[in-house]
Amino acid sequence: MNINCIDDEYPSPPLIDEITSPRKKLRADCSARKSWSLMDRRTDQEVLQEMGVSLLEQDDNEGHCEVTIAPHKANLKRKRDADIENVNPNANSASPQRRRSPRSPRSPKSPRAKARPSPGPSRPRSPRSPQAKPLQPTDPLETTLLSDYLVEEETPLAQVSTQYVPPHQSGFTSGSTSSCSGGKKHSYTPLGLEEELIISRRSKSEPLGSDTFSVLSDEMILSVFRWLPKRTLAHCMLVCKRWYQVACDETLWQRLDLGNKVLSRDALGRILARKPVIVRLASTEIAEWRPSTPPAPTRIQYLDLSMCTVDHQTLDHLLERCPSLKKLSLESVELRDATCKLIGGCSNLETLNLAMCRGITAEGLAEILKGCVSLQALNISWCNLNEAALNLLVTALPQKLQRLNVGGARIMTDEMVQQLASRCPRLLELDLSDCSRLGAASVAAALKLTRLEHLALSRCYLLPPHVLTKLGSMPSLQYLEVWGMLQAVSLGALRAALPAVQVNQFMFSAIARPTVGARRTSIWGLRTRD
């Protein structure tokens, strides 16, 4: 055992006498603690090694810092060295690399200087101590402990914080070392793909060369924009002024499908500003629109407002600006007489769908029939028309009318059907379904329609089954709908009596009937021909 250690652990007798003094008791307690006094160190180099100052110096011949393990107390290190020197000099015979040299450990000519402990983890070396250089630990225990510590350049934080040099600028490769100004060498650790993308976004430079897209003419850009959907086209309008002007071309906005949407306030005015031709707003919630400018005619020809939610004033403002309508659908929309008058102002209207509309009166119906002289298809089924409105309907319909659906008119009589057949001899399709008062006289009146192709008499329970066989004399009849009237046996007999007529082919004939030269859609639909 070393004598110096005994002196450290057991104080001398004069010190014990001083401890008995009450004033100096506190001083003695504080003096027993660990201190960094220069009195218990033999050289300045050992003091710097103990304080870890020498670790702050960067060696010119070394590329990175060496990491050493610091024990908790410096006196334990001295005790261990003393035990090795005085007690058992052959204790390290198993490890010849750690065997003491006959020279002094503090001699500058010693080939193997013992590594001094450091008080903390590895940190940059100080330029104030250029002579102190930590050596590589050779003890197996210290080597094992050193493997648990990572070099700062291998940590994720050091990888991200290290200055990134692109490969094409610095010739950087994996594991290579690049030299910087001042003769210092910095090793760069290869980053991952995500880190490279983050750094490249931060240091993104402007593209070199000219914009090849700007060389194209407006006509070429317009031809490219025709292939884009409307949402993407709206985003292109925000790129630059030139793209905005090209994207505002009215040929790109001929069709607008905004079905099942929610339009904000005054959004309808911005839609009309694009000058579309076909607008679909089926099942759309349309907020109020109060334009401050006088009404100006638009280019809209096909307008679908089926089952939309819209107030009366907004609907009137919209119809007031659509005098060129050819097809209009207002299914399940509440109407007023003023709205019907605006519909009558569309003199070019050819197809009108008013199925299940509410609020249609005889005065409003008169305004529609008076102005729409070019009407060819009318669906006014299930509108709960009164008797006056029905009498006006069968006597004031346009003579050029070809398709008519008055299904659900439960108060319609045989006399009204006769007036209808004499008023519209060019009918091609006639739907009288759910007109429960019709009898054999209505079938006789339908025989006068020589051009009729499709006749629907579903759920007309007062019609005798044998009267339906007379429809075989009609030369142009192709489809007959009698759903819910005949049993299976009677239905088979009717099909045998009418071999040239297809019976019960379309359950909803006036809604889902395909037309020649068009897509499969309703005869009252708003899709144009191919």
TrEMBL record:
Residues 170-182 have a biased composition (Low complexity). It comes from Iphiclides podalirius. The keyword S-adenosyl-L-methionine does not apply. Residues 70-140, 165-186 are annotated as: Disordered. The keyword Cytoplasm does not apply. Transmembrane segments: none annotated. This is F-box domain-containing protein. PANTHER family: PARTNER OF PAIRED, ISOFORM B-RELATED (PTHR13318).
